UniProtKB/TrEMBL annotation, chains A, B, C, D, E, F:
Protein name (record): Creatinine amidohydrolase
Top-level taxon: Bacteria
Species for this entry: Janibacter melonis
Family: Belongs to the creatininase superfamily.
Species classification: Bacteria, Bacillati, Actinomycetota, Actinomycetes, Micrococcales
Cofactor(s) needed: Zn(2+)
Amino acid sequence: MTSAEAAQAAQRGAVLVLPVGAVEQHGPALPLGTDTIRAEAVVDRLVDALDELVVVGPTVPVGVSPHHLAFPGTMTLRPATFAAVLTDYVDSLARHGWRRVLVVTGHGGNNATLGVVAQDVLRDHPEVELAWAPVTPLAPDALGAMNRAEVTGHCGEAETAQMLHLAPDLVRSDRLAAGTTVPGQLDPFARLSRGAAHPAVALPYDRLSASGVLGDPTSATAEDGRAVVDEVVRRLADFVREWSTT
Amino acid sequence: MTSAEAAQAAQRGAVLVLPVGAVEQHGPALPLGTDTIRAEAVVDRLVDALDELVVVGPTVPVGVSPHHLAFPGTMTLRPATFAAVLTDYVDSLARHGWRRVLVVTGHGGNNATLGVVAQDVLRDHPEVELAWAPVTPLAPDALGAMNRAEVTGHCGEAETAQMLHLAPDLVRSDRLAAGTTVPGQLDPFARLSRGAAHPAVALPYDRLSASGVLGDPTSATAEDGRAVVDEVVRRLADFVREWSTT
Amino acid sequence: MTSAEAAQAAQRGAVLVLPVGAVEQHGPALPLGTDTIRAEAVVDRLVDALDELVVVGPTVPVGVSPHHLAFPGTMTLRPATFAAVLTDYVDSLARHGWRRVLVVTGHGGNNATLGVVAQDVLRDHPEVELAWAPVTPLAPDALGAMNRAEVTGHCGEAETAQMLHLAPDLVRSDRLAAGTTVPGQLDPFARLSRGAAHPAVALPYDRLSASGVLGDPTSATAEDGRAVVDEVVRRLADFVREWSTT
Amino acid sequence: MTSAEAAQAAQRGAVLVLPVGAVEQHGPALPLGTDTIRAEAVVDRLVDALDELVVVGPTVPVGVSPHHLAFPGTMTLRPATFAAVLTDYVDSLARHGWRRVLVVTGHGGNNATLGVVAQDVLRDHPEVELAWAPVTPLAPDALGAMNRAEVTGHCGEAETAQMLHLAPDLVRSDRLAAGTTVPGQLDPFARLSRGAAHPAVALPYDRLSASGVLGDPTSATAEDGRAVVDEVVRRLADFVREWSTT
Amino acid sequence: MTSAEAAQAAQRGAVLVLPVGAVEQHGPALPLGTDTIRAEAVVDRLVDALDELVVVGPTVPVGVSPHHLAFPGTMTLRPATFAAVLTDYVDSLARHGWRRVLVVTGHGGNNATLGVVAQDVLRDHPEVELAWAPVTPLAPDALGAMNRAEVTGHCGEAETAQMLHLAPDLVRSDRLAAGTTVPGQLDPFARLSRGAAHPAVALPYDRLSASGVLGDPTSATAEDGRAVVDEVVRRLADFVREWSTT
Amino acid sequence: MTSAEAAQAAQRGAVLVLPVGAVEQHGPALPLGTDTIRAEAVVDRLVDALDELVVVGPTVPVGVSPHHLAFPGTMTLRPATFAAVLTDYVDSLARHGWRRVLVVTGHGGNNATLGVVAQDVLRDHPEVELAWAPVTPLAPDALGAMNRAEVTGHCGEAETAQMLHLAPDLVRSDRLAAGTTVPGQLDPFARLSRGAAHPAVALPYDRLSASGVLGDPTSATAEDGRAVVDEVVRRLADFVREWSTT
């Protein structure tokens, strides 16, 4: 996309979509960039579905991952840095007339900072509408149809399934192995943070799982992954289409 | 509490509980400090229930409320300031041996920043366990039993009920009036943010409701409020009791 | 106070009064929150005296107390955090038309940062007039009438007297004991900082007094405290009344 | 690359290579991401040349481009944000034992901030050796062999040639057109900044060229581009090989 | 002073003296750098008096002067910048073994920030003793002996007298003229801030005096100036001598 | 210069010149302030040459010198602090109508931060033209005529020659001694950073030279120094004259 094309896209009211992810441990079988890969793939498919309604902006490949720092390969931005990157992006975009920005995050650890960014944008750029969406939680139907362990999450069934669908070459299938799958394997304080209607807690991942894996990724299939991705893309596309008419 | 008593409490492993709230518009009938009042009241009852297991720390009375700034009386900290206050608190507490901190927030607008604070604490004070909890969402059972409008929330049935129970003198009952109660009254982008499994958005409250009220507070009763508060306190007390044994 | 009432108060030119204090060691007999308690009490009496001329804003309960960190229970904001809280307050207030803000600080350790805040407000909100006042130093007459040790100050005669008047239940009178009362008990560098027309120094309190007390609080009476508080309130009220006519 | 593989690479002393670029106007014919594309391509070829001596880290796709903000599509990080991203990267890498980091920047506007980052790393991570390199200036021989206008640079012969070699599909060859090619076309202050041994100045690009182009890209060939890229990669590879023996 | 000589001075426990001043309007007759000139002159004389007990560090020539910004020629650091300069100085000095630092400020507008710096140093460099002193207020005896207007201060009798003694060539004596000399000439809010035991306020200087002058400098003599400087130097020298024995 | 004179100078479009330097080790023979002394001396001569076209602003005497911190006497600002000082200066100057600012730095370690400052000024004060210049590199002809070692630089022939010309009393000529003069004396990584068209690196000076000296200052003469200074001043004067006509 050239400068002139960007000007036209902004003028026609396109939604600027920013994929954000993480570089962090993803167990023995998945690549460090799993979250970024999934976010970018979802955004690519969203573009296929929506064409000129959206434009893809630059990825933020490293996210907020202090809870994984005990594991090699993990890189993290401080939340303040991650927020500064996004607010600098919005500053630039607002200057050129963009009014709708959608952030798609492949990494749940970015959610809190994205919430903060949205509050700062609300104040400093009231003319910009910012929406942000995680990937996996946008597929409740597909998730419901999968077979998942009682404890599941990071590097688990859903994440592995998505990678088997989106980037099978990057999955070391022979190293897939169940991690923490039942509450009893968690340390006591970690157990406390499970269940509905309780206080939230932040925990380093080495207190959750020795291998960094929550759930049993060996049961994941590429088909499951396709179902998740399809549902996520469909929901995002519906959202953007409606947004574009407001 | 004197200096020596604080030393003893830290040493016996007590949980330090910090009430945080907001000073922001609460419609025509509720006081600006509604969220702080509810947080402090819940914490007071928690102390009654748990005695020496907890110690109450200083309140943060102003929270993150940029979305209410269009309404007079609203005060807000920038998210970075709110985070700095809490990390400074944790710095001080950690230095004196406190290892468990629970933040109780009466204001949902603080949630994102609390999530960020937790990530920073994880990195800079790995020896401290931080948990944080909203008030109203900790009472799913009591909420389920109440009669609430399709659109509800800020200054709505649940919040008003709590105030009728906790601080009836501060409620101008004659000014209670339904605000936005059905999606059709929201502006189109605001409508988009409703429902499950969709992107999150941040919106200024004047796009949600002309009076700043979501829901119909005229139906709220002090009894409902008591049920909400009781459930919140019970869940928090259970959490702290278990925590204290880890 | 509701949103609408706040709008009216701002419009009629009321002075917004902010009590700020500290959570820090106050020797064996006084509570950690002594400075906040005194600031809030003075402000309450000021409201009684001035009625609609003033409105009370949210307290900043924790102040700048790095010099007390050696003593358990002390919490401190970094000066930059304390300043950010107050400038965020002023930002919010200025937006809604407040033009006069008075900060009443129960803690001398906040003075320097308040001076800095005032300079930043001067630059960033020239439309706002900010005044700030300590508590005890506003009662020179009452202090002159009291019997005080040669070295006196934190937790000493004047502070204890105020607490005996304002919150006698929170004073452990049986633990009141003289702290450092003569210069010879100070460490040599601390001694240097005494007297008029000399350089200023900042010292950790454990170099000033083993118990954290300067002066002999055993001689303090509630009557003395009443005289101090009355004089402080009278001077503040005079100031606000005159201010309100400008 | 998985967590375990990252651990091995750090342990064997591999150089971590970070491509950084820009999203900014590149005239009517080149894409906004030209600098990032070239940096990533160079790094890819470096990996081909060096194999296990290097590992590629996450790209920083948006750089420091305030001088291009007058042109649509330009995004910029503030220098402080760009610096924070890189120091956060180094913080994470240092924690896991990386000792050599090479930043390859496709965008000259990042140079000053990279210099600052290096000074901060020197102080805060003396155990890490940081090197940083631009792309085009590392090919003095190939540049000398090209036919370039008297005024040349951004979007000019060398940059266009690289893109014709690396990503010909992204070059709108029919829109290539000469920009500012002789000093007389610059505004007077911009002219002042040319030549050796003079003060440096920073100028917005609209004072340098109406189209955002310096030089005449119509004369650029893919062959020239290959020569530039080959020389850059060769010099970087030599550097890394020597470094790896120290 | 060379690197080796600095090492020796630090080792023998010398006091590092930092002159700080301001660049701000000083009325029609005094130079913008008046405060810096006075601070440096006092420090020079202090060195003459104390020889090896002190070493002069680099001047901070621009201070905190937002209240003078309405007048041309005024430059100001934000308080946070001024504080950062001094804490960076102390960081460097502490690293090389300096344990005593004395800041001499010719500008009262720096006092609040110096107080904040001292609190930060107390926390981050407990091994360093920091003292700071204004110039004019260290000469109460000489001031008492001078003839000064009821309202006096900036560019007034005392400041002008010092300049007539220290740098007579820089004083445009023919332009000396009385500024604000009685309270009635102040604006009403400015008047409020006068007198003992009242709240402090910060005011822009154009509300205090049209010419930027407080007091009547026409009555100032070089002799008065000498008396002020001599007393200041004597008091500082006594302080440093005692300090050096602790 | 008084306030009124500053107003006139700004109005007539004078260039504001800011000397910046460093306080850092300069080997056994040169003073810590060598870079500041040279910058100020060059600026003084520039004023002599240009008269009313320029006005000298306040010096920044301490620069960015983390690479010299291993040597006693070195003081450094963090790059962010150094940048803040200069942007605060520009903020103040812009407010009073200054449109041209020239920074002359005697210390190469400031260059990167000056580049960053220029980018921030470009964005925040587009009405101000900022130029910045090092000292020694502005004399390529004089340098070419000098006899210099293969490795040369800090405290070497050129710097010493300038000091012999500008401030001979401050040079301990008897302690002048060759430092690192050939690449073989550098540590291997330091060697890597030499030569054209290679990546840049930042290194602590103790890895470059045990005495902190690069080159052989014993061969320097005051005459060489005069030639360097004359050329620098001539080039700067030409630049300013041309600038003043734009």
